[in-house]
Amino acid sequence: MRDLIVIDTNVFISALLNPFGESAIVLELCFQGQYHPLMGTALFFEYEDVLSRDPLFKKCLLDSQERDQALNDFISISKWTRVYYSWRPNLKDEGDNHLMELAIAGGAKSIVTRNVKDFKQPDLSFPDISILTPKQFLEDR
C-alpha cells in the first residue's frame, strides 16, 4: 500500500514555479504512484485560490490553462477525503489547521510543507504524522 501524504499548497505551487526542484520531485513521486496524496474541500479551494493569482506566476513556464490542467491531473491521483471533525484550536496559524485535519481524517503519515515552523508547538499532538519540508521528505523516503 502506498503511503498517504498531504501536500501543502506552497509545495504544489513551488513545483509549478520550479519544475526541477524538490517540490516537483515530490509531485512526480505521487504521479508515479509511490505516494498517494490526500485532497479535501478546504485544500482544494486553497489550491484554486492561489492558482488564480496571476502575478504570482509571472515567471512560470505554464499559462493559466496549463496550471488548471496540472491541478486537475493532481486531483485525479488524489484520494478525496472528507473531514468530519475539526481539531481546533490547534496550530498558531489558523490557515494550516485544515491540513492537520485532513491528515488525521485520511490517515496520512506526512504533511509535506515549506512552512514547517507553522506546525511547531501545536495545542494537540499527533506524533504519528510527520511534518516535513520537501527536502526532508525526499531524504526520509
Helix-residue proportion: 40-55%
How would you classify the helix and strand content by structural class? alpha/beta
**Euclidean distance between termini CA atoms:** 15 Å
Q: Can you give the mean pLDDT?
A: 90
| Count of the domains | 1
Count of helical stretches: 6
Spatial strand sequence of the major β-sheet:
3-2-1-4-5
CATH level-two architecture: 3-Layer(aba) Sandwich
Order of helices and strands: EHHEHHEHEEH
What is the CATH superfamily? 5'-nuclease
**Number of beta-strand segments:** 5
- CATH class reads Alpha Beta
Describe it.
With 141 residues, this protein is of the alpha/beta class. It has one domain (3-140): 5'-nuclease (Rossmann fold, 3-Layer(aba) Sandwich), CATH 3.40.50. Helices cover 43% and strands 13% of the residues. The protein contains six helices and five strands. The protein has a five-stranded parallel beta sheet with strand order 3-2-1-4-5, sandwiched between helices. α1 (9-17) packs across α2 (22-31) and α2 crosses α6. It is globular, with a radius of gyration of 14 Å. The two termini are 15 Å apart. The mean pLDDT is 90.
